[in-house]
Write a structure and sequence with these properties.
The protein has about 230 residues and is of the alpha/beta class. The protein has one domain: Alpha-Beta Barrel (TIM Barrel). Strands 1, 2, 3, 4, 5, 6, 7, 8, 9 and 10 form a ten-stranded mixed β-sheet that branches. Helix 5 links the parallel strand 7 and strand 8.
Length: about 230
Amino acid sequence: MNTKRIMSVDFHNHSEFSYDGHISLDDFLNTNDVDVFAITDHNNMDFHKRYSLGSNLYKLGNKWFIAGEEITTSDAGEIIGLFLVDEVTPGMTLEQTIEAIKNQGGIVYLPHPCDFYRRGKPKLHVVKKYMEKIDIVEVFNAKYLTPLEAILSYSFAKKYSKPFGFGSDAHKPEDLARGYVKLELPSEYLTKDILIKALASRESIVNVVQKRKSFMKRILKILRRW
């Protein structure tokens, strides 16, 4: 009996528990196109403290959730920890942050490595020193301003032979399901190892969805910061 299933995974999202997020649990549950959401709020895991019951991968309704956190480092911008049980304290060096993620069995995910304008973009001259400890590189982020940022991110991931990550980086409900990957998994039961193994195998990748936000909306948002 064939129990394989195709599941769509979005590795980068922010809930209402993030200082800049406005997405509720119901918003995630009512998003049809994605089966697995990583919730990676800035410098906290309050969403997961409320819903996960201490698990780093859990199911609510018909959706799976990966417990994650987008962490601000002192020397290298932002880094994401996935499959976390405990919060990682922001403000440490990248080396210390990676160690804290790994010490709890987490996965190190490099977000938006080639973003041109983002304040928290990774400082690649620092990141490159620790690439052997980074597990996944985000090649598509729906908040990228230009196609070139994605092209450079793909090239960066390929250079270091890292699995490709895809994220909506959603902060509002209308931003959900703009960046995700469809994976063929061996069963409907999901574990960290099954998911990461599938992502690392190009044969398991069925399709990817890459929808950047409106160019003009991104320009206006950037201008409002200045």
